């Protein structure tokens, strides 16, 4: 039947010379198949490297490809083997067909084919057959019509996209990923030869199933196309791939998210780095292995200099298992534990109500029925604010939150780009200790703002995204102080000191373990826990997540970027050299509790009208010497040991007197002299 088909086609083409007009009309009237191919949706990294691909509707892998993506040596070999007059014929190679016809007549069977690449494209477009003469005639007609409507480059690209390579693999780019694990831009002669041989009989020559047949077919191509014996010998000795490689599956959770948000887009270019993503996915799988079958992990890396996401690991593995690996934990609402404390202290520094060297009291406190305790149930008494943050004390964090106000705290949190979910809708003091729902992406954005001098850094992960405008979280001096404090926290064993400003956190009931930190360029967040929210007994952020944080930094880059230098206006002094109001932190509750011991101006009392010639004798009771007397905001007498002092050169009129004792407590009196 094939021989008769050749006779019919050849006769038609030869008669076409006498009936050119009729043949032209026949070709022009061809109803072409759909030329717009469905190709796999692709997710690529910032450098264009494939991170993830999706099958087309019928479950086939079919990656889009253009000539400039393919090794020129492969293209030369393909044309030399399959269709050496490809650039000269008009869809049908009459010389090849006459040769095949002559051989068929002489041998009594088909010896060699005459199908051009264009004819193969015609068959692939319609998924047609070659055995029936009607099918061969249809291929000829479609091929000649294709040549009139498409360029040679377009026809070749259709072949490169549709050529079958066994199973559900279509197209040369798909094949190189499946069998060689790479793009087709650089191929060895042996690899090129295998890619040429497979489409001729894709199922019978699959190297992952029939390696002997595949090698024989490859070697025949090598022998026919490669003239240099030494090159041919090396090519035939090259090891044949015997397995199909899985397609890249980097950042699968983020990829699914992007594709779902933009369902008609075929190519998504992200800001991620494929090599970093690969290393961190391996780290995540390694990190959970010693901790049972239910623990999961999430890691987010962001460049805080430009807001670009560098890596996003949603779980330890992308599958439905006991770890619930299909759940993207970078976006899950969780309790952040103590990781919000740096923002609390930063706002306090920004408002001028505290300084890293301010003394603050860590003592039992009751905030209207809310009595927080430190994680170990112990209290440290007086200590510096710096130490209170480094030790992650709960009472001091809540005390500062009461002073700055929970609403203001949540407002600044939102400015960072986070979207906090407040239980009950109204923030209370519990937000200081993690009583708010936040995602890992939220927390990474918050710390990016701290790293960026107190200016928020909106996160982007698509190269085409335009980031939102930055917002001020705190002044640059306050942000630097926070980084300086956090970089002084003792790192995990074998981790470098003073390289990363980081904070750990553990949510109530040990449900979430956090570690978030930054150097001079990157901020990395690590979350560990169970996606279903059940406790992980004994899990602490410092023990579980912090070591992974430092390992993540080592996998992002070889060296740490130095933290920023202090801004020029930064106040770097000891406690004794601070302005008096900053030497000791006092909240309203402290004043009330210490009222019996606080200094009190005995004379003149508040509201008094005193006859004076410019000299006033003032007296203080209670309090601890030495005393500082302040008149109208300016110190007049300092380090006074006596409780009665002489204030001189006071003009007639209204005055405000204040006395501050050695503990920083004070008393005030408004008087009139006449």
Automatic annotation (TrEMBL):
- Which residue positions does the secretion signal occupy? 1-20
Similarity-based family? In the N-terminal section; belongs to the glycosyltransferase 51 family. In the C-terminal section; belongs to the transpeptidase family.
Q: Which Pfam families is this protein grouped with? A: BiPBP_C (PF06832), Transgly (PF00912), Transpeptidase (PF00905)
Note the InterPro entries from the entry.
Answer: Beta-lactam/transpept-like (IPR012338), Glyco_trans_51 (IPR001264), Glycosyltr_51/Transpeptidase (IPR050396), Lysozyme-like_dom_sf (IPR023346), PBP_1c (IPR011815), PBP_C (IPR009647), PBP_transglycosylase (IPR036950), PCN-bd_Tpept (IPR001460)
What does the record give as EC number? 2.4.99.28
Q: In which pathway does it act?
A: Cell wall biogenesis; peptidoglycan biosynthesis
Task: Pinpoint the Glycosyl transferase family domain residues.
Answer: 57-224
Residues covered by the Penicillin-binding protein transpeptidase domain: 298-519
- If you read the UniProt record, what top EC class would you report for this enzyme, in one word? transferase
Catalytic activity reads:
[GlcNAc-(1->4)-Mur2Ac(oyl-L-Ala-gamma-D-Glu-L-Lys-D-Ala-D-Ala)](n)-di-trans,octa-cis-undecaprenyl diphosphate + beta-D-GlcNAc-(1->4)-Mur2Ac(oyl-L-Ala-gamma-D-Glu-L-Lys-D-Ala-D-Ala)-di-trans,octa-cis-undecaprenyl diphosphate = [GlcNAc-(1->4)-Mur2Ac(oyl-L-Ala-gamma-D-Glu-L-Lys-D-Ala-D-Ala)](n+1)-di-trans,octa-cis-undecaprenyl diphosphate + di-trans,octa-cis-undecaprenyl diphosphate + H(+)
Q: Which gene encodes it?
A: pbpC
Name the record gives this protein = peptidoglycan glycosyltransferase
Domain (Penicillin-binding C-terminal) spans 594-668
UniProt keywords (A-Z) are: Carboxypeptidase, Glycosyltransferase, Hydrolase, Multifunctional enzyme, Protease, Signal, Transferase
